[in-house]
## 1
Amino acid sequence: MTTHLGLMAVFSVFVSVAFAALTREEPADQLRFAVRLFAGFMLVGIVLGWVLYPLPL
Amino acid sequence: MRATAAERTQSTSNPYLICAAAWLIPGAGHLWLGRRQKGLIFLITLTAMFAFGIWIEGRLFPFDLTQPLVALSAFGDIGIGLPYFAAKAMNAGAGRVVAITYEYGNAFIIVAGLLNMLTVLDAFDIAQGRK
């Protein structure tokens, strides 16, 4: 649970669910939007991680 | 056509009182306005997000105006309402800077507060009949 990926996934779940409930009215729409948002968070996080990987910090 | 329970609640309640309730208890504004499903989602999700942030050793920041970023973080923290005061009363949220999860914990706590502020605005819009 304390891995970067695990924490990012938990964070993404919470934010996706809250945003979906906030911006969509129908439960089916909420579920679809939450899944898309979660997938977007994970994809962007992983891509950004690899893009930043070669940079010396 | 007869008004639904939610519509009757919207027309008889003070929107500012609803906002105060929505801030104090995540989801309470929506529950008050008859949006039970959304209210329960906010109550569970935002409270759990805040508690998770505390659990992984995030910090509740003080209102230190000499450090603007710390004060901004404190503003985000307090957005969650009652859980913030409950955590303070239990001496939780001291944060441990050397913990590997410290920064993540801060992000969970602050974002939970900011999301709750969005739910307050949403509840206000519903109470005003805009949604």
## 2
Amino acid sequence: MTVTMEKPKSGMSDGVYEREELLNGCQAVAQGVCLADVDVIAAYPIRPYTEVMDALSKLIADGAFDAEYIIADSEHSQFEIVKHASSVNARAFGGSSGTGWMYGMEALTVTATDRLPPMFVVGNRALDDPGAFGVEHNDAMAVRDLGWLLCWVTTPQEALEHVLIGYRVAEDKNVRMPMALAIDGAFLTHSQHIVKIPSVAAAKKFLPQYDLAERRLHPDNPISVAPQANEDWVMEIRRQNWEAAKRARGVIKEAYKEFNAIFGERYAQPYFDEYMTDDAETVLIGVGTVAAPGRTAVKRLREKGHKVGYVNLRWFRPFPTEELRACLSRFKSVGVVDRDFAHGSPDNCGILMHEIRSCLYPAKNRPAIVNFIGGLGGRDLSIADAQKMFDITAQAAKKDSMDGYITWIGLRE
Amino acid sequence: MAEQKINRVSLTEKDYEGAPSTMCRGCGHDAISASVMRAFYDSSVDPRKVIKLSGIGCSSKTPAYFLSQSFGFNAVHGRMSAVATGANVANHTLIPIGVSGDGDTAAIGLGNFCHMMRRNVNITYIVENNGVYGLTKGQFSATADKGSVMKGGKINEMPALDLAELAIVLGATYVARSFSGDRKQLAPLIEGALAHKGSAILDVISPCVTFNNHEGSTKSLKYVKEHLDPIHDVDFIPSYENIEADYKPGTDHMVTMHDGSRILLHKLHEDYDPTNRMQAMQMIHASVAEGKFLTGLIYYDPNRPDFAAELGLGDTPLAELGQDILQPPPEALERINADLMK
């Protein structure tokens, strides 16, 4: 299935979209937060996330948006404010990057185990040390085993739309999990695109009001949140978290169906996009903005007759196991691009590689899989790099010995 | 060629320099770095015995710009105080200087900062206080004054946290406030802090020329200059100098430091004694109420032992103790066990 993800198809005339603006990823997220009519925002600066809080502050100061806006004293406090606001039935929003995200980890952990559905944007940034402001995915990946929804987008348009989609999924009564929306530092947070901004009416039609119902913390609804359960109930609670994540797969599907019905056929598939894969033999798969050089390389290689395609994985948690297995089983070889690294892991490769290998293990037609570690700390992954990755991946289809082969792209040695 | 000026440990001013600064032109932090270099040179401190500590923020970049021969540790956001405490326990013979900012100290690192002072860890701790997060382009910090206006027009609604007051309350034993542009006052205050054994906190107002230097800001260069409220003129007299001639009984106040050096305070306010804790607190409150920056040596406690003394760490630092001392022989354990069986 082939789909291009460049621009929304609906015009402005039908009232679904209100206007166009030149926005970077951070500003687009802020517009999404505004359209989601978020009640409480807690903020604490760290690059590259900072511009999200600045853009929100400006929207409020300009009178374009009304929300409680709290500058916290650290990320940890920021995330706690967001979590508690969410528990009293306020739609809540926070965000961070890199080490800031990690500093608030205690709060992030309990937000998931308390099954609260606020949204956090993660402006992906390399973890210290050594210090770097550029993108790397290990920060957001840190919540992958904690009961979070985790999703990457590739353009400011998608970033705005996934604030709405993310709340729709997270707040669903069958889900109630926190949502991490990951946007690549610099390449998405600070690159500008023309963004079509939905009308308030369309956003409202898509995103129902937040209602925590029987779990709302309120004097009229006396309940205990986060009691000490010890060995009596922890296993059951963990299992409930997992059941919610399983249900989230279905809710994600529903959410995109509803989104497409209102905003035009924006997303052909909910969990991932495929680009020129119909007759492809070799594909690359990655998350985030590596899709841009990936898709461009596909276009160029297609002109030369190579049967190549690109798969952009959007939802990492819950992982779309069945769908992705069916998709990748169609190809002879798959190159997994990781902008992260799983230190000391079984295959000494990236996190995405591990997950995809595991996903494909039971596949009847298992393609050859190779891994690329690249773009760490914000280093550029160019179109030429993508072409090189396609070349290595294509070779893997012919040589059994290359299965599991790992290449560090652009490494000075 | 003229002979190069050297200090008492035969080092030149150049020996106290660091890498070229990357701060914005006119940043107050650069002026503070200059005062730091001046104080270390004048105090004849050997830079190779110094450890420079910092956290995250514009301020925390500045230790790269002075004392290039010293040890250095750039901690993660807000953790400088904890690292300083650890460094002090491991080797209390190192001379620690920490540079942090109001974001690093008064927000994310406040907990660690409080406990460092509670323990009276020996350190010269400079807060380069500009009321904003400069490195992330100017968000209000916890020391932004209520009513101060952000560059974009937003008015701060939260009251400021006063670091000097906090330091006195929490057990710091040398508390001063100064202005980055007043080297005449700041350099001797840093020298005094270096001579002091314990937590010496210097809250230095250092205007951010890029993000907090506009009309309506209470930390702008113009506003700060117009609202300085010095308690006294400050002179630092090293232990080897005779100062009898300069002392004016009745108007001057003398503070004797642990190493025998002295700080001579030429009083501008009547009857101010920096060892009077209550008076120090009252002075800060009165000054804040008038929208002024009280500067000078606000509080000094010569009697409280520092953390290393409290722990009885002895002369040889833990980092230099040999295995034979750190690991007692089997006989020692046998002796303890025998004692327990009695």
